[in-house]
Amino acid sequence: MSVPLLDVNAQNLPLEAELKQVFENVLRSGRFILGEEVEAFEKECAAALGAKHAISISSGTDALIIALMALGIGPGDEVLCPSFTFFATAGSVHRTGATPVFCDVTTDCFGIDLESAKAKLTSKTKAIIPVHLFGQSSEMDAITSFAKEHGLKIIEDVAQSFGSTYRGRACGTIGEIGSFSFFPSKNLGGFGDGGLVTTESFELCEKMLRLRNHGMHPRYYHSMVGGNFRMDALQCALLRVKLHHIGEYAAGRTRNANYYSRRLSKISGEELILPNDRDHAGHVWNQYTLRVPGRRDELKAHLTEKGIGCEIYYPVPMHRQECFANLPEHSLSNCPISDQLASEVVSIPVYPELVEAQLDEVATAIESFFP
Question: What are the alphabetically sorted keywords of the record (predicted)?
């Protein structure tokens, strides 16, 4: 039996009738930009996350960009971010004219290593972007204390972790701004690109509302230069349907992750390192990421041959990317754990609609690889 890494139809098609009805409602309304569906989705997201303010944005990448813009980050500024992450984290910093400074990460949660961040702090450092990677939070208490001590703003990259928590508090509500993605593979996966920003600050909320609509308020009056960062009303309406199921989606991912952890624990060790599930961090398992020192590519080939979907997130850390080769030396140096993880990690199917027979197929394929 082949098992795909992700099957969006397994989640979306059971909702087909409701999604079609929502589409028809928006079609007949004739309101495709902003409006009631957008406002309702934002209120429901804020309630689900326990955030004071939530604003829908055109993509997860644009959510990071607008967050940086709202905090006044630009040319001459430096922003600390992990090297082991998806490109958008660093690319968004670069697009504002600021300089991404790549820090190493920890092996327990793949989050930014604060000792590395401390070593790379300069007088130009204005912000830090902790990434809650693969569905699990970074160590936000230490990051918050560090940021407060040095006057840094915190932008949480929650693209992969909608609904995750840190010590009972939703990720995305701890720093100044949280940035989310609704790319179809995410825990709350949309029907194209989409994103969200959250904040506890009324002032930042008002600023981002203007920035997402060309800096305009009132109409045709521009006190700042923004962009077209709006999310379509149709996308918001469709996502509202799926938001009502986010609890069961999270439970399904947790169930599947627990199955793997139980099943694979007997071969876990130096050859196969299972992901951590820390007690104080509510993991939502966007990915179930194994570490396979020395044999990762062999295992990936083995799984592929057996029809098991798998992927490497990520094979090249940011400090090794060609487009950043001309950054200052301190931006690119001393990220050995990021290099190590890039050579070890492979993610296996964990989406909530997997049935036990599929989980068994994946686990059996992995077991057959190890003596």
Answer: Aminotransferase, Pyridoxal phosphate, Transferase
